[in-house]
Amino acid sequence: MALWETLTESINHYTGLSPAAFFTILALMYVTYKVVCGMFVAADDYAAVKRANEFALREPVQMGDVTEEELRAYDGSDPSKPLLMAIKGQIYDVSRSRMFYGPGGPYALFAGRDASRALALMSFDPKDLTGNIEGLSASELEVLQDWEYKFMEKYVKVGQLVSKNTSESKETGNESEASKHAENKSEEKQKEGHETQ
Ligand code: HEM
């Protein structure tokens, strides 16, 4: 506690800022740094980036119904899997923007998640990493709507989030079951995905 007080007093003394303002500026500087870094590639990383790009250029695979738990596996930690992100329960393949959403990217925290609330609030707070948009104001919902339009325009929709007990095939939590299910729906959803672009 004393340490925290010393820290906040020092911040105020040296910067003239309140701790909240100081940490907000620090977070914004971090995002700026990560975004700018993402624009450059170290020579050693070139081969890895090339492999990632090859993957990103693959045709998005339709997933059909996916639970939140299953979606987590598509957060970019496994480079052989597509990078997925959801807005308002609709899942998009964001593999082509691996520099934003892939590991180490400025928006990596959104990958494998429904980030609706965080996007509506323009927040990086982990507690806002949810598809629950209850209690948002009209202007926040409008911000979210703009994000949704951006994603519909830029990415292919590859599925939708379902609650765990909606689909019987999901109850095992078995990914191969999910894949089989996705395959069945593949053609139909592929069309739908392209329509939304
Ligand atoms: C200092 C603050 C920020 C800076 C400098 C910044 C900068 C940028 C830049 C340069 C891009 C690339 C735009 C493009 O090429 O299409 C971008 C994309 C993006 N920003 Fe930020 N941003 C900031 C804050 C935020 C916040 C607070 C959020 C949400 C919580 C956010 C979410 C996003 C997302 C999701 C994308 C990627 C959109 C896509 O997939 O095309 N940004 N940002």
Automatic annotation (TrEMBL):
Keywords of the record: Cell membrane, Endoplasmic reticulum, Heme, Iron, Lipid-binding, Membrane, Metal-binding, Steroid-binding, Transmembrane, Transmembrane helix
Protein name in the entry: Membrane steroid-binding protein 2-like
Matches recorded under PANTHER family: MEMBRANE-ASSOCIATED PROGESTERONE RECEPTOR COMPONENT-RELATED (PTHR10281), NEUDESIN (PTHR10281:SF72)
Pfam families hit by this protein: Cyt-b5 (PF00173)
Comp. bias intervals (Basic and acidic residues): 167-197
TM region(s), chain numbering: 20-43
GO annotation, cellular component aspect: endoplasmic reticulum; plasma membrane
Record region (Disordered): 162-197
Compartment(s) where it occurs, according to its Swiss-Prot or TrEMBL record: Cell membrane; Endoplasmic reticulum
Residues annotated as domain Cytochrome b5 heme-binding: 66-162
Organism per entry: Sesamum indicum
Gene3D superfamilies linked to this entry: Cytochrome b5-like heme/steroid binding domain
Family the entry assigns: Belongs to the cytochrome b5 family. MAPR subfamily.
GO molecular function, one term: steroid binding
Domain of life: Eukaryota
